Structures are given as C-alpha cells and as structure tokens.
Amino acid sequence: EAALVLEGIEKGYNRGKPSEVIVLRGATLSVARGEVVALVAPSGAGKSTLLHIAGLLDTPDRGRVVHGGREMGGLSDRTRTEARRAEVGFIYQFHHLLPEFSALENIVLPQLANGVAQREAEARGRDLLGRVGVAARADHRPAALSGGEQQRVAFCRALANAPKLLLADEPTGNLDPATSEQVFSALMELVRETGLSALIATHNLELAARMDRVVRLDQGRVV
Ligand code: ADP
Ligand code: ADP
Q1: Probe ligand 1: pick from 9, 17, 48, max atoms within 8 Å of CB?
Q2: What value of ipTM does the predicted structure carry?
C-alpha cells in the first residue's frame, strides 16, 4: 500500500473571478512506503499547493487524496486535522522555530500537544538532535544557531511525532551550497533510519538525483 496517493488533483484559486488561476490540472502521484520522491518544478508551478493538498492543509477542487490506503476526501475538518497532526511532518525553506524556546523545547512542544509525557518527549528530542549532529545545541534558542543548525532542528521537530509522511518545501533553499549538502545528508540519513516516506520539493537537481525518484510538475500535471 502506498504511503501517499494523489489522483487527478485539480486546484485553482479565485475560481470564477477575473483573477482566476488554475494551478493543478489533474496531478497524479504516488509515494510508496519508505520511498523518497523529489518534486522538481519552476517557481510558481504549484509545488506548495500540491504539498499543502498532500499534507491535508488544503483540499483539492477535484481528485483523491489517500494516505496509507485511507481516503481523506470525505473527512470532517477535525478528523483531517487529527490525521495531519498524527501522520504528516512538514519542513519549509525557513525553519519557523519558536524563537523564545530552546531547540529541544521546539521538539518537545509538539509531542506534549500530542499527549506524550515530558520525560519521554525530551528523550526523543535529544535522540533526534543527536542523530542530526546538534545535540550540543539542545539548550540554545534558534537565534543562537547557524542556519544549517536551525534547519536540522526543524527536521527534528517535523519528525517529533513520528509521522508516516514527510513533506518538505525547498528544505535547503535558504542555505549556501556546502551547508545545504551537509543538511541534506543529515535529513536523508534520518529519513532512511526511520523508514519514512517523503516528498521533497527542490530546485537543486543534484540533490533531487540522490532521491529514489524524481517527478516534475509541468502545466499542472506530474510528469
Ligand atoms: P510554487 O510553490 O511552485 O512556487 P505555488 O503553489 O505557491 O507554487 O503557487 C502556484 C500558483 O498559484 C502561483 O501562480 C501563485 O501565485 C498562485 N497562488 C498560490 N496561492 C494562492 C492563493 N492563496 N490565492 C491566489 N493565488 C495563489
Ligand atoms: P499544532 O498541532 O501546533 O496546532 P497544526 O496542526 O496547526 O499544529 O499544524 C501541523 C503542521 O502543519 C505544522 O508542521 C505546521 O507548521 C503546519 N501548518 C499548519 N498550518 C499551516 C499553514 N497554513 N501553512 C503551512 N503549514 C501549516
């Protein structure tokens, strides 16, 4: 069973208005369990829209979204939000860490919100930070960390609640090439170790080539 199936996804904004823009025109894509898929497309092609639909943050105008064999289409907003929190981890180009909390706290908080006990949440947070090489920075606030370290902490936060699917939107887009390489390697190791399925949007064709499969978004379709 695939971790993610998107079938015939259509999505537009401002439908029926002069400012209407049709972004997705029947996009179909499947991510197998444990598979890491690169999503490559020029800016404005609809990567973020596709990732938001895949991650249950937005709903398509038409088409099916299936997570691990479960249809997400007919769900109530509440059930969809619960599924998102339990099953999907997001990473963005900018880390979006909470500035007033330490690196560790940023990974602990989503676990507490998910009902995990403090002690267990901290242990998992430290373990994740160790795996991406930033254990020594656990008690620092994001502002005290380098860009690469901040992004590694953001990966740990995305994985805090052990999601089944990781969605990343230009996760190294804000980093210089050397840092980008280090951070991407750390991410891939973490993904492989946890057997996670991932859809990773990137402009970087070298990084894309190191994933299991590369798909392209062209004219609103996945090719
Ligand atoms: P990408 O991530 O590939 O850059 P996006 O999915 O962000 O592309 O956007 C695809 C197109 O949809 C762009 O033309 C963008 O301007 C438009 N768009 C995205 N979000 C909205 C919105 N909320 N309202 C109107 N247009 C939008
Ligand atoms: P919380 O459990 O803290 O309430 P949410 O359920 O709101 O978090 O969000 C779960 C995930 O979805 C987080 O990774 C968050 O960054 C992401 N997210 C929530 N809303 C949006 C949005 N409008 N755009 C992009 N990402 C979002």
Answers
A1: 48
A2: 0.67
